Fold these 2 entries.
Entry 1:
Amino acid sequence: MRHCPRRPLDRATREFLRDQQLVVNAGDDVEATWKRARHMPAFRPVLQNLQAMAGPTERCMYCGDSRGVTVEHCYPKRKSPTEYPRRAFWWRNLLLACDDCQRRKGSRFPMDARHRPLLIDPTRENPWDHLVFVPETCELAARYDGAGQPSPKGQTTTDPHLLRLNDQAICEQRGRAWRRIRRAVQDTLRRLGEDETPDVLQRDLVEQLRDADFDGLLEWCLARDG
Ligand SMILES: [Zn+2]
């Protein structure tokens, strides 16, 4: 799960979303309004910006898979009472997610006792603040704080009933990336002992690492615990 900071929308797209939201707020059916709006040319920049935020491979912002990726609502638009339909066209409520994650999450959206979301929103926060990578299993797990308490957001986000972060196929992809990153670093250390030019070593390492990243794992390896 990688951090995908939100990009600003152009004015015309912001106004388009606002107008659609007003239609829903006035009482029109949220599903029908969403379906209609999704096929309008004015909606295209929404998808394009989410794809750009998700990184070069435009994958699911939750699990990192590339199959059936489409626009997802962080706060579900169907959730009752009527609160979440009022966020259906909020730019900051839209993410990019795969079919499987969308299906599992459905209209569920766990909250803590103070009514704060328990799912990580990768556009608002860095997932690695709540998660760690487990090299032995290639799964993601909740991060523990200094007092020995697991991150509630990390626990909820890795719940297999809600999202597919730890499905076997995803862990296999993560494992391949982990091994490639390790090989790239080990190769560099070996060549360092052979007195190769540091500039060449650095260039080769950066190239190999850029190709090896999967779903923000590179950040965990080089800038976090790894
Ligand atoms: Zn997914």
Entry 2:
Amino acid sequence: MHDGWYQVAFSRDVRAPLTEVHLAGEPIALVRRNEGSLAAVSAWCPHRGANLCRGGLLDGDAIICPFHGVRVNLQGEGRFQARHLDVAEIGGLIFVKQPGGEDAGLMRTLQAMEKQAQFVPGFELALRAEAELVVENAFDQSHFRPVHRVENLPRFRREDHPDGAYAVSGSFTLPTSPWQKGRRGDLVDVPFRATAYSPTIVLSNLGGDHPYSMITTAMPISPTETIARLSLIMPGSPSREDCLYLLEQAKAGLMQDAFIWEGMRRPETIDPVESDAIILGFRVFSDGFRTIGQGAVAGAGIGVS
Ligand code: FES
Ligand SMILES: [Fe+2]
């Protein structure tokens, strides 16, 4: 696990006062107050470790533990204090990271997009694959033609990013689609930019006459199981049909990748061809995040390796 952002849920799934999600295999309580605000705290009771989401009650600024009834304070004074994580809710997506973990400009970017575009929370898909593969995929320039049938071999260029995110740009040649609104059978060049803000979050911007963006996130459940989540960020007021079409296309694309991922062996080292340089750059970016071991969320001290 790393110390950057993870998407842990969609807002539509977090309506109750306490909702259990997981990070680094450990339970996190998402705390929804009446006024709608959201907090994320370790779900383990600081008294003797009961899971606060299993019968705990939100009472003002505290959670009453279901096991021995202590008040676990979310703020203010008191013997037992909840351990907070950083949490952000934007456009119907909920993100969590370690306190003080790496942001790489994600929140600034999403807040700016929220002012000008419409977030369309999408779908989640359980994959039998390593989480990093999902985000790394956006930087794998040589897979788009064989796996996704784009017409060209896109040549990605590394781009500078002011907040240290990992960004590349290139262009895809695609058959026109209902979204691109061209004549059937024509080809269209679509500028593409991918920006990773953590090893498990990538924002893809598709340009041209009909631009839109996608945010793809990967939540590891185990070393070989991942929940991928994908949402759209649409300029203007998109029609429901367009959104459904783009989400269906995105899901079909992920399933094309998953067919490869679920059957592959991930070697320790890669035998790189020239086009793998962009992938290797992504791995260097990912290695720049601190690795957090088991127990980190509960606050027994953050294990850094
Ligand atoms: S474990 Fe929570 S009150 Fe004892
Ligand atoms: Fe792919």
